[in-house]
Fold this sequence. Notes:
This protein is α/β, with parallel strands linked by helices. The chain has 13 helices and 12 strands. It has a 7-stranded mixed beta sheet, with helices on both faces. A 3-stranded antiparallel beta sheet has the order 9-12-11, covered by helices on one side. Strands 1-10 form a two-stranded parallel ribbon. Strand 5 (162-168), helix 8 and strand 6 (195-199) form a beta-alpha-beta unit. The protein binds pyridoxal-5'-phosphate.
Amino acid sequence: MNTTASAADLAPEYIRRIAPYVAGKPIDELARELGLDASTIVKLASNENPRGASPVVVAALAAAASELTRYPDSNGFALKDAIARRYAVDPREIVLGNGSNDILELVSLAFLKPGDDAVYAQHAFVVYPLATQARGARGIEVPARDFGHDLRAMRAAITAQTRIVFVANPNNPTGSWLPPAAIEAFLASVPADVVVVLDEAYNEYLDPADDANATRWIATYPNLVVSRTFSKAYGLAALRVGYGVMNAALADIVNRVRPPFNVNAFAQVAAIAALADTGYVVASRAQNRDGMRTLEAGFDALGLRHLPSHGNFIMVDVGDGMTVFQNLLRAGVIVRPVANYGLPAWLRVTVGLAHENARLLAALPAALGR
Ligand SMILES: Cc1ncc(COP(=O)(O)O)c(C=O)c1O
């Protein structure tokens, strides 16, 4: 019997090499570390909706609280029905996820194995390399152009072993965005046996005039997965609910690896209510646009370079991201360093409420050592 190897050592090498996902620092954690009152801390670190949940959603959740003993509907009939009506797709073309992160993982689980490749852009959402590595597949990172995706280079990077291409539109953390014509030309150029995951987690923050309505493309491109979430503009990050829209044959495959009951009953109820509350999303978009302008003007006043963003966050060049991040923590402001994205000079700041944005801008000069 081998008494020296531990069970942990026997995990596949590609799993042991994974650098775990680092989430935005929770408010309570910083409060404990610094002995601060949690209510004084401002968190602009996880691209959450700062407005608080819609009252319509809160009421729906309260009504659902009387039914805790039953499992949720594993097939999410009512939520799929609501999404299908909204986007004029068939419920069989929808896969529900525990957040859209789940969709990214499930598609990777269904299509990647050791020896396969997945293509994604430099500075793209970190879950693409993580999900790829977790399947023992090889990630092909394509150099960014102007901090965004270079779709031509991504097309050229596809190999005979490529099973998935991930495209974030808008991208986190850079905020870059590609217009509908560029995405559609890319879809037309990708071989039909390569799955394209078009990650639209921030879709609802786009100016409606910029929205490609990408779900309509699944009829033309049976290899397309459009992933969306209720975590951002719908304000339901705590509940973990997202979805993928794709050709029914693709959805059937992805559903085979989906754990039973992966979207809990509260999440389903809340998502249905949130989808119907269009006013909340419109107000969130307006609040985000105003906050974005405030942050851009504040960074300009400090002479800080920033990137144009189509999400609910903005990247700002502070010279030494980790030092300024630490200094801001001491001032009770949590933002996100992005050195793990190969961007050590930058910070990603989520657009907050007016008083939260003001706190950040007021704290920045000292945090920059000025
Ligand atoms: C680009 C992108 N995709 C997907 C997600 C996953 O979000 P969720 O699992 O909350 O839907 C995020 C979260 O930050 C994101 O930035």
